[in-house]
Amino acid sequence: MLKIKLARFGRRGQPHYRIVINEARDKRDGQYVEAIGTYAPTQTPKILDINTERYSFWLEKGAQPTDTVANLFGRFKSGNPFPAHKAQPSRKVVAKQKAEAEAAAQAKVEPAVAAAETAIKSVASEPEVSEK
């Protein structure tokens, strides 16, 4: 049975892969029938290139893609296989933003507290009226 799978190349810690057609029981990095694409996950940005015509041809012939290759092909067909991640702010920036938000909230609360205190003082200073 033919498989569409990844064959690993590159040095230790710097892998790149060829997407190949190979017999299911053959070695991962052994001889292959045909190479139909490449995948370089360690480069920035990641590189994914698949010949979709040859991929479809081999699927029609009965080749079965591995789960990883099927996932990569789905990403490749989407048009933007590896979207950029949103930049996460540093912890210092987050702490500074929290402190600024607390200061702004405190600034809004202080005038209300002062008004409430003056109202309480004015009510307390008024003489009590007794009904006799």
Might you state the CATH topology name of the largest domain?
S16 Ribosomal Protein, Chain: A
Gyration radius over CA: 34 Å
What are the segments in which pLDDT stays under 50 over at least 5 consecutive residues?
none
* Strands side by side in the biggest sheet: 4-3-2-1-5
- Tally the helices: 3
Distance between the termini: 108 Å
Multimer state: single chain
Percentage of β-strand residues: 25-35%
Give a short account of the largest sheet. Answer: 5 strands, mixed
| Quantity of strands, as a count | 5
The coarse silhouette is rod-shaped
**Mean model confidence by pLDDT:** 84
Helix content: 40-55%
CATH superfamily of the largest domain: Ribosomal protein S16
The ordered string of helix (H) and strand (E) elements is EEEEHEHH
What is the number of domains? 2
